[in-house]
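Workshop exercise sheet. Pairs work together: one partner reads the sequence aloud, the other fills in the structure field after running the prediction. Swap roles for the next sheet.
Pair: D.N. / O.F.
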Amino acid sequence: MRFHIEAEHDAYDAVIIGSGAGGLVSAALLAHLGRKVLVVERHDRPGGYLHSFRRDGCLFDSAVHLVGGCGEGPNGPGVVLRLLRALGVEDECDFERVDPVYSAIFPGMRIDARGGLAGFTETHIEKFPAEKAGIEALVECCRRIRLETELVSGLERGALRSLQATAPTLFRYRRATLEAVAKDFIEDPRARAAFGALWPYLGLPPSRVSFLYFATMLMSYVEDGAYYCRGSFQRLARALVKSIQRDGGEVLLRSEVRRIRVEDGRAQGIILENGQVIDAPLVISGADARQTFEELIGSEHVDPRRLRSLRAMRPSLSAFVVYGSTTMDLPAAGATHEMFFYDTWDHDEDYAALHRGELSRIGFTVPTLADPSLAPAGRHAFQITVPLPFDFTSSWKRDKQRWTDHLIERANRAFPGLDKQLGDIQGGTPRTLERYTRNTSGAMYGWELSPDQIGPKRLGGQTSIPGLALAGHWTQPGAGVYGALTSGVDAARSAVGTDSPAEFWRALESASD
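Structure field:
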């Protein structure tokens, strides 16, 4: 692959700021449709939260553990597989299906959530047989939400009456939290807690997270299947880069955008930190939303009401992550690819404890169960993750070792003897995430995924400044690789002026023939 630190040309059809999933997808699609594109990335490798790194002989994903939509689902190929096929780079990624999707360990109960609608539903019914009817109905409600979300993806923003007629389930629950909806179906609070065990993937407990977004995320893993990318998720980023470069696009690394040029009320291109001025009628920013408008655009070019609205939005939690390896036989000790260890059945108490500095739950990921090549023979790579507020401490540098030790101690309770069989250990703080991604407060999920910050209440891909569009987890539909990829598809579709998603996919697939 060819990477540069200075653009080869001074004019492009589109400039994409940032090489996160949303930015790479929009760039790859536009290049595939014949546009001349430039991607500018400040890091030394593409991918954003998809990027990986090596430590102590192991290859670690920085943030992504699983992705849905990478295989053939009940309704055809998932969005990731369909995207890679349309771009002609399907063979660049080798996805391994993970089942169970996750394991949740609560006081006195372990739940291995099997994949597939039937498997997931039966898993919960086996643990809570008295709630059989409610569990089945809630899973079906989640499925309906996902179907209706896809059905209305082409609706104009604010088309509330159309939404009510076309997607009644989506309309009914558009302002609801997961807990509020779960109570309509399931009486047992432990059964509700078990159903919402995947909430750490969205950074908010069931009482605060959007039901619509949780349902869509859950179904992407359960209905389409949860997958790990062999060789790390950096392979997915590289597949997209390969497509961009094959179709004549450029990718700059270790390059930073100083300014988005706004002239006569519209975006006209960018200025790089090296002083190079680049013309482009379209700029797609996958960068942090506040930085895009306040620093790259400049507040003088933004409607004051938009700035006030932007400043009132709440970033999501960040995270503390420990990366390590062990000679322990983790499968024999009961490990699965993705595990959540809860000290309480009360997710609200868990969330409150995090803000008090108490550790009542960790996520434990063992990617070498899906891909043994990530670590030397006889060793497993693992990650321990806990969402935390960025401003939890005044000095993450000072407290880094203490929290690293804290997470290792908690993991040792789950796997006794782990602390005696460790390789090199590396801690990553919220400050680390902020430094590498420039996300406000090291946010893991862009804006917080509460009901008042999703759908039309989240930033749209199109902005009030002509020539400027957005992609990534700060914009619609939301967080996670699946959400960021979707935002990139939407940005490219809008850029080529195609209203219909189906028509856009047909154009892509025709371009590949």
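Discussion prompt: The mean pLDDT is 93. What would you look at next?
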